[in-house]
Amino acid sequence: MDATVESGRVKIHPLPVRIVHWINLLAVLAMLFSGWRIYNAAPVFDFKFPAELTLGGWLGGALLWHFAAMWLLFVNGLFYLAWGVLSGHFKRKLLPLSAGAALGDVLLALKGKLGHDDLSVYNAAQRGAYAGAIAILIALVVSGIAIWKPVQLHELAALMGGYEGARLLHFFAMAALLLFIAVHIAMVALVPRTFLAMLTGRARRTS
Ligand code: HEM
Description:
The protein contains 8 helices and 3 strands, in the order E-E-H-H-H-H-H-H-H-H-E. The protein is mainly alpha-helical. Helix 1 runs antiparallel to helix 2 and helix 4 crosses helix 5 (124-148). The protein is elongated and about 55 Å long. Bound molecules: protoporphyrin IX containing FE. Residues 17, 21, 24-25, 28, 93, 119, 130, 133-134, 137, 177, 181, 184-185, 188, 194-195, 197-198 line the site of protoporphyrin IX containing FE.
């Protein structure tokens, strides 16, 4: 049982989830902003990201940031995946996944009728969004590795339609992650006590 009661406060997020979550945020931000600088050096599409929103100063500096943050994201993510499976966290918090139930919850949320009283349980829309974010991050790492070593790992790149295909996948996965982050932050802003719970691990019981 995840939720243990101590002095009227319920345990919501175990320490490993909180540490991994905030390290992940730092790594993702560094990867995004340095990635935009790398993109600007050879844009795939007919636009560039504003230089003020990029990290690294120049292509070489951005590549150093991107690879450094990549290792942080990779090791942190690997630990989260292993811990999530072995501790039963994914089974307990993210399963079952159902597109129909997720859509139903999104419709309820749009009508303002989706409650989030018990912070220890994710609704179907959250479960889908979090599992989706994890899948997007995996796609980003795998396509990024294929772009990094397209000759040595040409079989991996071929699975994505070659170097150009891997580049497109990397770009669209970045865009999907950005969409997730925007919706995620909007949802947290709507229920601010979830933010405190992700910091302290606990929340006051509402029932
Ligand atoms: C400022 C940025 C962010 C804030 C304020 C934030 C906040 C939160 C909060 C409050 C929760 C718990 C939601 C709840 O209990 O209802 C959560 C969970 C989660 N967040 Fe974020 N988050 C941020 C960025 C990110 C990013 C960048 C990612 C991934 C790319 C991410 C992925 C997740 C995942 C996967 C969970 C579920 C964790 C689990 O229980 O295993 N978050 N976040």
